[in-house]
Specification:
The protein has about 475 residues and is of the alpha/beta class. The chain has 16 helices and 20 strands. It binds zinc ion (2 copies). One zinc ion binds near residues 337, 371, 406 and 451.
């Protein structure tokens, strides 16, 4: 689903700002032959457009959802009390439609009309499933998902054009089963294949494992990252097996996603200094043993900086280290992080990651962690073309390698190669693009780790809540 937020900030429904407790979602069909949602968004964004508003329009050309009001704003539509406690969603209709009454029409291009109906149906199913999850609604419960016409029968909408009239007029009720009952069913099915959002941030390991589990729960996280040892290097603390056991209990009981441990920043397998390379070897080998206390987790590291030795040499040295460290018995998957490509960093190009992976013998133990700030800084424009970036990743590395995400905004525009993280929505990537990342069907279910410059856990708790969808409520 492509969701674009385009609030009708001048419309009285927006400015009145009345709030509702969302009881259900009403599906409308616009009732006039205009396929492009943007034209409605423009027209309805008017201070004189009184007593008419909905929360979203679905475009007839490409199924894009334009969210026009925060979901919990009151939007009244067509009659008082209008949509009441319902979210209202309009599907655009094909250009060739000619209404002969409120419920009947003629159509000059049925093929196009059917394509529009299919597209808006598909987008509406996804949107409704998403909203039902957000608001804890059961799509099959009486009165939760209703059409405009059903709303009329319940005294909360007028008696004009309606999705079922539209589908029926095109013969799609019999041909494709487009009815409200089938729609509700389709939404319920869509909700079943949805994957949870695993999200968290870096937590301090100073208080031990159980303390991290409790900290995660306190901020609404269901995954997290932690440094296996001092991020600047040094020796790791002894592990207390009973403490690890307590964390494992918390993780299972609360259905956490995989954890994403982080190697120290000083770990550089392709340094020109033998001492630094030895530290990389020692630290990673030791960390692999320690990670077995949290089986099935990920272990993320910055591939390294070749410091003038050339990326080919660097790639070789990184792969050599991995081949020495990885054992077929380990349950940990090691993740190469995508980098911004500053200085002599390796991993700024997908090709470099692919070249490392190609050289690793035990390749089922190796994956990639994609950092949104880093790849944007590295020149992959996820704000302008997420699908293209993912297609490129798939072609070069393979999306099956992608195991985790670092969710960060960037202080700099795409291609800046700076690696300066920003809080979500406060950087050059922007909230909408980040939302598309976490909701992308190819990325859903991957653990998402925030590495934003928040000052404390409360700040991360707010960001987690924001990304869990509360932002749609404002
Ligand atoms: Zn990162
Ligand atoms: Zn970074």
């Amino acid at each position: 689903m492509k969701l674009v937020r385009s609030y009708l900030t001048k419309n009285p429904c927006y400015t009145a700002g009345d709030k509702i407790t969302v009881k259900g979602i009403m599906l409308h069909s616009v009732g006039c032959p205009r396929q492009d949602a943007a034209s409605f968004v423009e027209e309805w964004n008017d201070e004189n457009y009184d007593r008419a508003c909905v929360h979203a329009f679905i475009d007839g050309f490409d199924g894009t959802v334009y969210q026009t009001l925060p979901w919990n704003h009151r939007a009244w539509h067509c009659c008082s009390p209008g949509n009441g406690d319902y979210i209202g969603v309009e599907m655009c209709e094909p250009a060739g439609l000619q209404y002969t009454s409120d419920f009947t029409f003629t159509c000059e291009d049925e093929e196009t009309a059917r394509a529009v109906a299919q597209r808006t149906w598909d987008a509406a199913v996804e949107l409704f499933a998403y909203l039902c999850r957000q608001f804890g609604l059961d799509p099959l419960s009486d009165g939760v998902i209703i059409s405009h016409w059903e709303g009329y029968q319940r005294g909360i909408a007028s008696d004009h054009e309606d999705p079922e009239h539209f589908w029926k007029g095109l013969g799609l009720d019999t041909e494709r089963g487009f009815t409200m009952d089938r729609f509700r069913q389709a939404v319920a099915e869509k909700m079943e294949d949805a994957k949870p959002l695993y999200i968290g941030c870096h937590l301090s390991s100073a208080g031990g494992f159980e303390a991290m589990g409790k900290a995660a729960l306190s901020i609404g996280a269901n995954t997290f990252a932690f440094f296996t040892r001092n991020p600047r290097g040094g020796k790791a603390k002894e592990i207390d097996p009973a403490d690890a056991e307590k964390l494992r209990e918390i993780l299972t009981k609360n259905s956490f996603g995989p954890l994403v441990a982080h190697a120290p920043y000083t770990l550089n397998p392709c340094s020109s200094a033998a001492k630094t390379r030895e530290f990389a070897h020692m630290a990673m080998a030791d960390d692999m043993k320690r990670m077995e206390y949290l089986p099935g987790s990920y272990y993320n590291f910055h591939p390294g900086s070749h410091v003038g030795q050339g990326s080919e040499k660097g790639i070789e040295m990184i792969a050599d280290l991995l081949n020495e460290i990885i054992t077929p018995e380990q349950s940990t998957t090691i993740l190469l992080e995508t980098m911004a490509g500053k200085g002599s960093e390796i991993g700024g190009r997908f090709e470099e990651l692919a070249a490392i992976i190609e050289r690793v013998h035990c390749d089922e133990k190796i994956g990639v962690c994609l950092d949104t700030c880093h790849i944007s800084d590295g020149g992959y424009d996820i704000t302008g073309g997420l699908d293209e970036v993912l297609a490129e990743f798939d072609r070069i590395v393979g999306l099956d390698r992608l195991k985790a995400l670092h969710i960060n905004d960037s202080q700099n525009p795409a291609g800046a190669r700076k690696d300066r993280h920003a809080c979500i929505g406060e950087g050059q990537i922007g909230l909408d693009a980040i939302l598309r990342v976490i909701n992308h069907p190819k990325l859903m279910g991957l653990p998402c780790i925030l590495e934003t410059p928040q000052e404390n856990l409360t700040g991360y708790g707010r960001e987690i809540a924001l990304l869990r969808g509360v932002h749609y409520d404002e």
